[in-house]
Amino acid sequence: MKLTFRIASACVGFALLASPALAADKVRWKLAMSWSSTLTPFATACNNLAKSVEEMSGGNFTIRVEGAEKHKAALGILDMTKGGQYEMGHSASYYWKGKDISSVFFTTVPFGMNVDEQNAWLYRGGGMELMQKAYEKFDVLSYPGGNTGVQMGGWFQKEIKSLDDLKGLKMRIPGLAGEVFAKLGVNVTNIPAGELYTSLDRGTIDALEWVGPGMDIKMGFHKIAPYYYTGWHEPATELQFLVNKKAFDKLPKEYQAILVTAMKAAAADMYTDNFADSADAWAQMKTEFPNIEVKEFPKPVLQAMKKAADELYDEYAASDPFFKEVLDSQRAYMKKARAWTNISEFNYIKTTQELAE
């Protein structure tokens, strides 16, 4: 076996050594993505998953990955996984807020936890249990599918100097952040990834947010919207693997363990890939794309966003007991975790940056 430092392949190696005899059942699954097959590193996570499952099962368990260009339903992944057209899906939980508003918490929420805090909440703070509780009604299982970390605040065709500049703006922005912007007068829409550039170019929208420089530059948004704003709305965007529960329950126990292990490894690899790609692209921007103007939203605009977000949280919590349960869980964990984040990560960056200056 070829030695590699990628987590997914490392897990494969250990699994093969530990499990020389696996069930002989041949299992053939399909996985539908919200993204095209060429959209890396999102699609890469699914391909890594499929490769790991096949290797760990000795070729007996295979997963065929299909992008949005194949199934033509980028925002229909939950329904297709629930209905059994696909045994698995890869998407983002906040796309389903119209079905269950609590789904937003399992991607990310405005002014929420960073990636380390959110991962700790998921795996050690009760987040996974709450996520499975949320998806029980859909007869699917949900697992973390790879994090992007802090996302950028979006590409705008005009500079945002005040709240007045947001009024009437047409913007693609999903999740609870879209509702925050709607409160501030933005005309919000959600458009699949494959239609973003064309929509911005043709004036269907005036602004959009996608991910970060590693993915955004490849999409070409900087050619038609030069103002690039820093983030506030998606501090730890976790994608998701969806699994049809009936199909999962039919798997031999060995295959269930293989699948769960491979999903966790693929998610970890995606976060590393996304961070590295964005670091490379950020360095590129200074020399290759000098027309990009990196901006921060003015403080009064950010304060209005925060106020609108808090109002939304309180409104939903007052009418939805489960939303309140998840909100309370995240708030409590964030309060505890942020104290450590401030004294560790934030303090380290702040003090070493001061030395560099």
UniProtKB/TrEMBL annotation:
Positions annotated to bind Na(+): W210
Domain of life: Bacteria
Listed Pfam families: DctP
Protein name, as recorded: TRAP-type mannitol/chloroaromatic compound transport system, substrate-binding protein
Positions contributing to substrate binding: Q151, R172, E209, E234
Stretch forming the signal peptide: 1-23
Keyword terms, alphabetized: Metal-binding, Signal
Gene Ontology, cellular component aspect: tripartite ATP-independent periplasmic transporter complex
GO BP: transmembrane transport
GO molecular function terms attached to this record: metal ion binding
Taxonomic source organism: Desulfopila aestuarii DSM 18488
